[in-house]
What we know:
16 helices, binds iron/sulfur cluster, four-stranded parallel β-sheet, Rossmann fold, binds 1,3-dihydroxyacetonephosphate
Amino acid sequence: MSTAATKQDSELFDRFRSLGQETVYSEESCQHIEELVAEITALKREKNAVILAHNYQRPEIFEVADFVGDSLELARRGRDVAESTIVLCGVHFMAETAKILSPDKRVLIPDARAGCSLADSVDADALVARRDELRKVFPDLVVVSYVNTTAAVKAVTDVCCTSSNAVKIVGAVDSNNILFVPDRNLAAYVSANTAKNIIAWDGDCYVHHQIRPDVIRKVREAHPGIRVVAHPECRTDVLAEADAVLSTSGMIRYARDTDAAEFLVVTECGLSDRLLMEVPEKRFYKACQLCHYMKMITLPGTRDALIHGKDEVSLDREVCDHARASLERMIELG
Ligand code: 13P
Ligand code: SF4
C-alpha cells in the first residue's frame, strides 16, 4: 500500500485534473484512491483474479481494470481470460454474460444490485408467450435479444446482439421476421437499417430515453463544427440529430480517428471521462445522464468483492448452457 504519497506527488491527481471534477477528485481523495488501487492490485495477484470494466465505470475503476470495453468486447474478453476469478465492474447482465461464457470460473460483481432498466423490461416467460403467439403468424420468426437481458431471457433467445453488431446480426440471421428484445429504440434503429420485419419489444433504457433532440440542436448552434455521437439506445428523433450512431467503444475510436476537435457525447455521462482519458487532446461535451446502476460499483466495493468472494454470480446449469448458445451464435455471426 502506498502510504508515502504526499499532496505534491499524487500522480493520479495530475492525470484526473483533466476531468474537471476537482470536488470529487481532490488531492486528498486521489491519495486515498491510490492506496485502494495498490491494495486491489495486490489482491488480484493473490486471488488470481482479473478485473473487466465497462466504459461507463467511474474513472478510478479504470485504474484497477485489466481491460475496459463495451458489452461486446467484455463478452469476448470474458470468454478468453486465463485467471480463475473474473471481477466484472459493470452491471449484472454483464457479469452473467461472463459467467455464461466461462461457467467454470468464479465471477464476482462488487454490487449485485447493479441492474439495468432494459434487462428488467423483459422476463423469459413473457418472451416465450409472445414468441409462440407471433410464430402462429410468422413461423420462421427468430428472437434476437440485446445482451442487456438476463441469462433466463438469453436462454430462450435464438441469437444475442450488442449495440455494435445489432444491424449485422439481424442481417445475418436466416429469417425475415425478427422479434427484437427488449429495447424499442435500438429496434427502431435496426429497422431503419434493414429491409427485414422488426417486431420490437416495448422496453427502454431510462438513461438514454430521457435525452431530447432540442438539447443537441442548442449545442450545435453554440458550437458549429461539433461532431455529435449518439448511442443507439437513444430515441429515433435524437439519433436523427447525430453525425454517428455508435457503441461506447465505437465512440472512443471515432473521437480518436476523426479530424474534429469537439464532440457532443450523447450517452451516459461517464463515457466523457473515459474519452477525456483516452483522447486527452480533444474536447467533449456531454448529455448529463447518469446510470445509477453503473455507479453502484466503487473501489471499496471492488476491494471487498476480492476479499470476501462476493457477490458471486451463480446460474442454473441448463439456463447457462442455453444462454451460451445464443451468445456463441452472436460471436460467430458478428
Ligand atoms: P455498449 O455495448 O455500447 O457499451 O452499451 C452498453 C450499455 O449498457 C449502454 O447503455
Ligand atoms: Fe442499462 Fe441503460 Fe444503465 Fe446501460 S445505461 S446499463 S442500458 S440502465
